[in-house]
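Researcher: First entry.
Model:
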Amino acid sequence: MINITLNISTLKAATFCAARNDAHYYLRGVYIEILPDDNRVDITSTDGQVLSHFSETLEYCSLKEPVSVIVPLETVQAVLKMQKKGFVSLMKLSDGAWQLGAVTFQPIDGKYPDYRSVIPQTKDVVKGDAEGLQFTPESILKCHNAIRAFTGDGTSCGILTEYDDSKAVIHNGTPNAVSVCMSTRVKCESYKGIA
């Protein structure tokens, strides 16, 4: 039986970047990976434009192999309405269903994208100006809000850096919390003849 404990603030943080109405149904959830060899659980969400990724240390895990599950966003939101802070359990039940806190759910069936290829390694991050990169304010705000929710105090903002001319990386100074915002690459043209 799988039974682990997750921090409510990490689940809340992951909801900011999860897809809401995407044709790719597997993005409308929070991807949870239990990694017993690394003694950690990774919690990830993306809508294709923004991505948030968080890691927590596992207190105890009897699993021998990694296990992953895509928890529907509605399930995570229901749990967050019932419990505002602290910890919640994630369990796999004997009938194939899962339970997050008091909510039983069927996981989203699908293959989650290779998000690790989007997250730069710390040594690859280049600090500097973001000339040429263009982002929607909503995307940057989602990434910042995810990092703020992860810290749990509501005041800490992430550090914005530039990476390989295609994305902004927002983090809290540790590898445990990172958000990535993809550049829109939209060319803006000025209006001529407007006084």
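Researcher: Second entry.
Model:
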Amino acid sequence: MELHRGREIRGRAQNVLGQMYRSGDGLPRNYGKAAKWFREAAELGDRNGQYNLGRMYQRGKEVRLDLSEAAKWFRKAALQGHRKAQYSLGILYEKGTGVSRDSKEAEKWKLKAAEQGEARAQNYCGVKYARGMEVEKNYTEAYMWLHLAATQGNRTARKNISTLKEKMTPEQISEAKQLVQEWKPKA
């Protein structure tokens, strides 16, 4: 138990070092060192390190661009419940970059992210229900997702909710607000 805890603490510390090198916060900015520390954290199983390493491979600015490698690390973090990794993995499946295009996998990961509170994924779910994209059109459900994203500062969701409200009845808005009050993120 203590050995596992030690690895966990070491992984978190290595991820923080990676963040400091990437941002130049407290240490000189050095993307190579950031990647080294993210990899160390990722290999110890730290989900934030896995996500950050995946982002570096996805961007290709700090390390060589490798979307397959990005998908690998996003998947590891996503399986541990990292909501940003889940959303990022969903986008890769949607576009077929780094992985084979698979709309069902894309939906699965984006929904998991939304259910955990990832604002971009929540906005996506709101738009999906507002337009009836692969689901029955449901303005109440759309409002709930968009409201959840908007309250986190997602500007796109704010615009989308304004447009959606024009199409809704007062009863639908009231019901949607109740859904928002009852909503709790899934673990």
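Model: Note on the second entry: The first helix runs from residue 2 to 23.
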